[in-house]
Amino acid sequence: MIIKMLEIGEEKYTRNVNNIFRLISSSKYYDDFGKMKVYGIEVRYGNCTESIEDISISKEVVISLLQKLETEKCSLLHFKDVVEDFVIDQIIFGCIYSTNHQYSPS
Q1: Rounded to the nearest 5°, which phi and psi values hold at 42?
Q2: Average pLDDT over the chain, rounded to whole?
Q3: Within a 10 A sphere around the Cβ of 14, how many other Cβ atoms?
Q4: For the whole model, what pTM was predicted?
Q5: Exposed (0-12), middle (13-18) or buried (19+): which is 47, by Cβ within 10 Å?
Q6: Domain ranges of the chain
Q7: pLDDT at 83 over 80
Q8: Sheet with 11-15: strands ordered across
Q9: Phi, psi at residue 38, to the nearest 5°?
Q10: Measuring CA to CA, which residue among 33, 31, 2 is closest to residue 16?
Q11: Coil, strand, or helix at residue 13?
Q12: Residue 73: which residues within 8 A CB-CB, separation 6 or more?
């Protein structure tokens, strides 16, 4: 259950009873493309924080994943595995850079 979604500048937050998920961004250098903005997700539970900084260069793809994590109430324990599966699916289906893709697990 989504209690609240806040948009503050470039950051979007969703929260459920246990976790707070946050869209994060940073710059990363790629040999073939140079410096690019990448998006990731940070999740907080109490005093514990986990983050993955470079899920995609597509903000919309990462927001889609963030919303799915919230909807499915993903636990901190499974966060990294779910993101890893998401990225692998994106690579296999060739749409990691697509801004029109909405993530739907099988």
Answers
A1: -115, 140
A2: 77
A3: 20
A4: 0.69
A5: exposed
A6: 4-92
A7: yes
A8: 4-8, 11-15, 20-30, 34-45, 48-56
A9: -120, 155
A10: 2
A11: strand
A12: 16, 18, 19
